[in-house]
Structure formats: C-alpha cells, structure tokens
Amino acid sequence: MKQLFIILSLMFVSMTAVAQSDYYMRRAQSYQREAEYYTKRAHNYDRESDYYNRQAQSHLREAEYYTRRKDYDRAKSYQRRAREATDKSEWNKKNADNARDKARQYMRWAEDALDKAKREKR
C-alpha cells in the first residue's frame, strides 16, 4: 500500500510538471498570436498613413494649381484638406509605432514563456 501511494504521488508530481510545461507552451503560443495580430495592425496603420500622405500631396498640388489661377479661397480649402490629411497620417504613424511596441512586448513574453517551458522540462 505504501509503495502504491509513493508511485501515485510520483506520477502526480510528474504530471503537474508536464502540465506546467504545457501551460507555458500554450502561453507562448498565445503571446505569439498576439504579436502577430499587433504586427498586422501596425502594417495596416502604415498603409493608411501612406494613403493620407498621398492625399496630402494631391491636395497641395491642387492648392498650388488654384493659387496660380488666383482662386485663393479654393486654394485655402485645399491647404486645409492637406493639413488634415497630414494630421491623420501622423496619427496613423503613431498608432503603428504603438502597435509595433506591443508586438515586441508580446514576443518578449513569448520568449520568456518558452524559456520557462524549457526549464520545466528539465
């Protein structure tokens, strides 16, 4: 009976060690998925930022055109649109940087979880 109890307790201890290791592996995978998500978001924010930069350039060309034609009200309107597009572009760049920072953080956490999983398996 005593031997059975010792064997069962050893099995329980080994199973919890495997479960801990498995837990850290699942955490690492979850962190990697989060990092991938934030990397994609950063890419999308960069794309939008590029779009708004192109819009701003287009609006500035229009403003220049209307300035040459001495239609200053319309030129002023296009300058305002260019300024707004530039603001949106900067906002998207800032969000892209924040998303990249989050992705880096999640990758660090995934690396830490993998290290813990390796230590648990030893």
Can you summarize this structure?
By secondary structure, the chain is mostly helical.
What does this structure look like?
With 122 residues, the chain is mainly alpha-helical. The chain is 96% helix and 0% strand. The protein has 2 helices and no strands. α1 runs antiparallel to α2. The chain is rod-shaped, with a radius of gyration of 28 Å.
What is the radius of gyration? Answer: 28 Å
Based on CA inertia axes, which overall geometry fits?
rod-shaped
Structural class: mainly alpha
Strand content: under 5%
Number of strands: 0
Q: Fraction of residues in helices?
A: over 70%
Main beta-sheet strand count, sense and barrel state: none
Total count of helical runs of at least 4 residues: 2
Distance between the termini: 30 Å
Q: Uncertain spans, ≥5 residues at pLDDT below 50?
A: none
> What pattern of helices and strands is seen along the backbone?
HH
Mean pLDDT score, rounded?
88
Topology:
Elements: H1 2-68, H2 72-121
Summary keywords:
0% strand, 122 residues, mainly alpha
